[in-house]
């Protein structure tokens, strides 16, 4: 299909124009005279799809919208909470049909290159939203790049870490593990001395990455255009995860709603160690009887034989390419407010979400936040994922594989070979296989 590049160009502090240029064109976004606008005079109706957790995170984003409206009272924001699991396909379906898509979307990092390649997003190059591009974490901003253009701004960044119950770890007399082997020993000791299960391994594709990265593995090699998901390194990583379960160091994971089960057990102090991200901090903090964030330990994921590796994650603000020009100024004003250093600091303070702006880390509420301080080095050393249009399609087959290996006891190499075949047939057919 012929790809169309659509761009946003800043006209003034709150106004911009949408332009269309053919792929590969050197055309510049349209220019116009600057018109300083009174925020109260800006009038529009925007729809925002928020894909954050509706219970733990959504209310805080809605609080920010109310604050936005104190400055922009005539910009109505139709807030819609869309389940994360449904949002990717729901947005693609609506954008392809040219009806029902939101003006602004909170997109997972892997979705942006895909949506941009399909012509569903406006390029932000030249717009006011990228005027302070250097203030963003470079790794987080990279997920918004495709074909030499920038299609979003990073809202939050994250990575997986080892979360642990400080009380249980202290009671068992174990040190915070730095390797998977140490985690196995520590978890078994916790179970022996406290009667509480030591660890929980979530059988989902994203959560198997630290085990595979730890042995030097990856999903694809984009430079060589090769599928490497079924490498011996990844087999070794999965065997480490499986051994934690088989040895009793980790509880046998649930076949249904394993993630929910993991979080319930952790919040109820029935398991000492889990691997998860900062998005669950507010959930843990509010759990009755857990002991608040004071009892929450945070450390880098344990290392394998090659390294300690955790995937970089997060979400970005993107603008649907079908947004009419008359909404442009409001769209920019909204994203600019929601993604300011002050707003990011508020999210960090209330939810433990990690800012993507360097300047946000200089705000006292962030500097003094123990959770953010603990997660910051985790994200700084996180492993970048392949920022290609197909990147968001890697995890469906990977989820199936994780369930097969960690729950159904299927052979790791055979399951990974099936993933590689799926990638070759449906995801990256031009890539070579092992």
Automatic annotation (TrEMBL):
Organism whose genome encodes this protein: Actinoplanes italicus
PANTHER family in alphabetical order: MALTOSE-BINDING PERIPLASMIC PROTEIN, MALTOSE_MALTODEXTRIN-BINDING PERIPLASMIC PROTEIN
Pfam families registered for this protein in UniProt: SBP_bac_8
CC terms in the record's Gene Ontology section: ATP-binding cassette (ABC) transporter complex, substrate-binding subunit-containing
Span of the signal peptide: 1-17
Gene Ontology MF, one: maltose binding
Family: Belongs to the bacterial solute-binding protein 1 family.
Protein name (Swiss-Prot/TrEMBL): Carbohydrate ABC transporter substrate-binding protein (CUT1 family)
Matching PROSITE patterns: PROKAR_LIPOPROTEIN
Single biological process term from Gene Ontology: maltose transport
Alphabetized UniProt keyword annotations: Signal, Transport
UniProt xrefs under InterPro entries: SBP
């Amino acid at each position: 299909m012929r790809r169309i590049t659509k761009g946003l160009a800043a006209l003034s502090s709150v106004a911009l124009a949408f332009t269309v240029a053919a792929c590969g064109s050197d055309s510049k976004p349209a220019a116009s005279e600057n018109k300083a606008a009174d925020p109260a005079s800006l009038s529009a109706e925007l729809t925002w799809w928020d894909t954050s957790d509706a219970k733990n995170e959504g209310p805080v984003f809605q609080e920010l919208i109310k604050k936005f409206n104190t400055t922009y009272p005539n910009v109505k924001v139709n807030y819609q909470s869309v389940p994360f699991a449904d949002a990717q396909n729901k947005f693609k379906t609506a954008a392809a049909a040219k009806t029902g898509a939101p003006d602004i979307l909170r997109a997972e990092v892997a979705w942006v290159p895909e949506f941009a390649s399909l012509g569903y997003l406006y390029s932000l190059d030249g717009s006011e939203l990228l005027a302070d591009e250097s203030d963003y974490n470079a790794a987080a901003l990279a997920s918004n790049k495709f074909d030499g253009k920038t299609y979003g701004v990073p809202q939050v960044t994250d990575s997986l870490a080892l979360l642990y119950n400080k009380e249980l770890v202290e009671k068992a007399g174990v040190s915070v593990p730095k390797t998977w082997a140490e985690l196995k020993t520590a978890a078994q000791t916790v179970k022996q001395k406290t009667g509480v299960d030591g660890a929980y391994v979530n059988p989902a594709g994203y959560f198997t990455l630290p085990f595979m990265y730890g042995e030097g593995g990856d999903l694809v090699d984009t430079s060589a255009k090769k599928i490497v998901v079924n490498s011996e390194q990844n087999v070794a990583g999965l065997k480490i995860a499986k051994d934690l379960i088989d040895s009793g160091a980790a509880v046998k994971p649930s076949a249904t709603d394993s993630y929910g089960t993991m979080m319930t057990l952790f919040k109820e102090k029935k398991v000492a160690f889990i691997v998860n991200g900062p998005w669950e901090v507010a959930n843990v903090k509010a759990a009755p009887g857990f002991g608040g964030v004071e009892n929450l330990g945070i450390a880098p994921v344990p290392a394998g034989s090659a390294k300690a590796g955790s995937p970089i994650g997060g979400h970005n603000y993107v603008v649907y390419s079908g947004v009419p020009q008359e909404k442009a100024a409001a769209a920019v004003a909204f994203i600019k407010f929601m993604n300011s250093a002050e707003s990011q600091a508020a999210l960090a303070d209330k939810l433990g979400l990690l800012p993507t702006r360097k300047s946000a880390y200089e705000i006292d509420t962030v500097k003094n936040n123990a959770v953010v301080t603990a997660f910051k080095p985790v994200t700084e050393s996180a492993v970048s994922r392949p920022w290609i249009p197909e990147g968001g399609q890697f995890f469906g087959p990977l989820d199936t594989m994780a369930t097969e290996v960690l729950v159904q006891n299927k052979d790791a190499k055979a399951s990974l070979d099936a993933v590689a075949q799926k990638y070759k047939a449906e995801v990256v057919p031009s890539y070579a296989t092992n």
